[in-house]
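pasting for ref
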Amino acid sequence: MLSSIFDGVDGEVASLFNRQTEFGAILDTTLDRIVDTLIIGGAIYQSFSLGIASPKIEYIVIFSLAILGSIYVSFLSNIIRDKELVAKARNRFPWPTRDVRVAVLAFAIMFNQPFIGILYILFSSWFFIAVVVISIAKRVRGIGIAKIIKKAAPRPIIFTPIRVAVYEVIRDVLFLISLIFITAKGFEYLNTYLTVNISTIVWESILAVELALMAYFAYRVLRSLWYILNRVGEIVARSLWITPTVYGRISIKFILLLMIILIMYPINYLLLMSRVQRIIIDFVNYVFLIAVVILVIAIAIDVIRVLEHKIYSYISRFFK
């Protein structure tokens, strides 16, 4: 992580003092590749130390392709003149940029899952290479030149109907529930393995993809709900005689409550995959529970204050 920070700072410092040189650019690129190789080498060493990997041909091929892919991403980014093409390939999923690769590998190492980080580097790097090579091949053969040269017109702002947004929420919630069920079954199947081998690594990689999809659909649900709350905010505020500020505060707390509930499952599965002690998992769940209780109480207090005048009117009518 520090190498990524210093890698971004050195260029800015050189530009600030007007000390950019060709030798400095070559030295910076060379040192970055050495650091990347050392970081991946450390992850490989941890994989061997934890018993996740062994000196077999399949592991050697995976590790070698990960290192070559990491180096070749930077090589292609430097030699290709069309920087717009490179930027489009780098800014699309699975984001092969150096900062993302180092961050993912660092988190994987912290959770004792270095092999998953290496697999991410392998997949993201070679996916970027394939996209760039195919794009250049299409351009050379005259395919898709109009799409590359022609600038796309700015898209008009189109508001999604509430009905469509509600449909998207229901669809994404169903996907999320299915992923939670499938992931739970996957962990039950993974627990049947007593030793670490290639089968457990494959299953852990599949479960990591499922956790990423779970987080993605949780984000989609929260985004759609936030859109619906904003669209109906004026109507609700007018009918309940409340200010938009109060309605916005309640909406934010409601979204935070749902976010905590939705991320509990991926984090619990991630901790289980990391094989941490049970007391740590219980502590994390306890923190989540406290946060949920606090938000529920805060939302209830805000709702009671909002409906205070209506509650008083109902009570006065009852006692009359």
